[in-house]
Amino acid sequence: MQSQCLLLCFLALVICQGTETVLDLFPEYKIVQRRIDALENDNKALKVEIAQIKGAGYTAFTATLSRNGATLSSGGIVKYNRVLANIGNCYNSYTGVFSVKTSGAYSGSASMMSSPGKASYLDLMKNGQILVSPFASTYDMASQTVNVALSRGDKL
């Protein structure tokens, strides 16, 4: 296709004996060239964006409590002492806080079981604001998943 285009351009130049340019003979060429330039710029921008995303990495963690569970007072933070995965090192098992390094959409889950004869609830919080509150009573179990947009520096 490219060689045919070049041949046509050459023939056009020979026929016109140099009095007109290819752009004069084919005004559509300018439009096509502008579109190509715009696509090349878009492509460069997308390559930069992809490199930024790849460089940012991803984060994920899974943590549980030991078999003894946890006894908390109101407002206490659950500090999961058994960390199974901590990709990106965003979960701190000493504070019980997940700190967001990369802005994006996240999915968070919490599961719990109540003690005999007691009702319990658990708040999954973002920057001190409650997102969801699973509730369980007398050996009931509760689980909740939430999908939320988080920004760098947010705390769960």
UniProtKB/TrEMBL annotation:
Subcellular location: Secreted
Pfam families listed in its UniProt record: C1q
GO cellular component: extracellular region
Signal peptide: 1-21
Domain of life: Eukaryota
InterPro entries (UniProt xref): C1q_dom, Cerebellin_Synaptic_Org, Tumour_necrosis_fac-like_dom
Keywords: Coiled coil, Secreted, Signal
Residue ranges of domain C1q in the record: 54-156
Residues forming coiled coils: 29-56
Protein known as: Putative C1q domain containing protein MgC1q35
Organism annotation: Mytilus galloprovincialis (Mediterranean mussel)
